[in-house]
């Protein structure tokens, strides 16, 4: 998940104050044996198990239970949070190489029939759609409701 989308979902602000941004670390990572396809009629991708493929994504350190509740609610019933292992990418000279293996979660898409055959293109999303998912007048307030419901009375 792009940092701008993460902060929009969890803080209703794609550019929160520096003190909040410093709570998290975003590190490029590789998830093996998954592919990120375009979801039909949607702007967003669906990660789906696919042997031999891999996804370049972001490993986020510093997530709280409240963040995860908001992300679960945002992703909705089309996805299931699954525990996976990723390899963080690190620089060696001008090259990125696989580094430390970390256990984390991925939101796996549940409906294979709703995926297009072609891979989802992050650069295309960034260029054409990111502004729609992180614009200033768009907030994701329902995540607060989900966090409260999960916490219980």
Automatic annotation (TrEMBL):
Transmembrane segments: none annotated. InterPro entries: AIG2-like, AIG2-like_dom, GGCT-like, GGCT-like_sf. Gene3D superfamilies: Gamma-glutamyl cyclotransferase-like. It comes from Moelleriella libera RCEF 2490. One of its GO terms (molecular function) is transferase activity. Belongs to the gamma-glutamylcyclotransferase family. Pfam families: GGACT. Residues 25-120 form the Gamma-glutamylcyclotransferase AIG2-like domain. The lineage of its organism: Eukaryota, Fungi, Dikarya, Ascomycota, Pezizomycotina. This is Putative gamma-glutamylcyclotransferase. Keywords: Transferase.
């Amino acid at each position: 998940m792009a940092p701008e989308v993460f902060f929009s979902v969890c803080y209703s602000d794609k550019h929160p104050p520096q003190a909040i941004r410093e709570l998290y670390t975003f590190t490029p990572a590789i998830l093996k044996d998954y592919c990120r396809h375009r979801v039909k009629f949607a702007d967003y991708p669906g990660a789906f198990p696919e042997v031999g493929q891999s996804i370049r994504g972001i490993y986020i350190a510093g997530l709280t239970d409240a963040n995860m509740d908001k992300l679960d609610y945002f992703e909705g019933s089309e996805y299931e949070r699954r525990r996976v292992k990723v390899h963080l990418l690190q620089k060696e000279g001008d090259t990125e190489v696989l580094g430390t293996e970390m256990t984390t979660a991925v939101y796996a898409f549940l409906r294979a029939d709703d995926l297009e055959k072609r891979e989802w293109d992050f650069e295309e999303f960034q260029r054409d759609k990111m502004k729609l998912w992180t614009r200033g007048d768009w907030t994701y307030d329902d995540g607060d409701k989900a966090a409260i419901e999960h916490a219980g009375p």
